[in-house]
Amino acid sequence: MSGWWMPAGQLKILRRMATGEVLLHDRNKRIFYWESNPKERATVSAKALHNKNHISPELNFNYPAGVVKMNITPTGKNEMGYNRGIHLE
Predict the structure, then answer these.
(1) Which of 29, 34, 40, 71 is the most buried (most CB within 10 A)?
(2) Longest dimension (CA), the chain
(3) What is the mean pLDDT of residues 61-79?
(4) In what order do the strands lie in the sheet with 55-58?
């Protein structure tokens, strides 16, 4: 997939997650948001990453019912590698 590029919004989410930021998914409200700033939503790009299996939920009972922590999958890590030359602002 050497000719593939990832949209900037999705790549930003993966890069933030790779640096240790926690992305949460509220299954009841169907939204994705950052643990550090719950008002900052990442729903559209995160939903696309989830549908492409670049991020997946982690079973963790430290959060309220219906809220799960998202992790980068090995496929997501590969995609980040393919897109490492893209500079984002």
Answers:
(1) 34
(2) 41
(3) 88
(4) 31-34, 23-26, 67-72, 55-58
> To 10 degrees, the CA torsion angle through 17, 10, 23, 31?
180
Give the mean pLDDT of the chain: 87
pLDDT at 4: 64
CB atoms inside a 10 Å sphere around CB 31? 16
Mode of pairing for the β-strands spanning 31-34 and 55-58: unpaired
Beta bridge partners of 26: 31, 67
Cα 13 from chain centre: 5
59 SS3 class: coil
Q: What distance lies between CA 87 and its chain's CA centroid?
A: 18
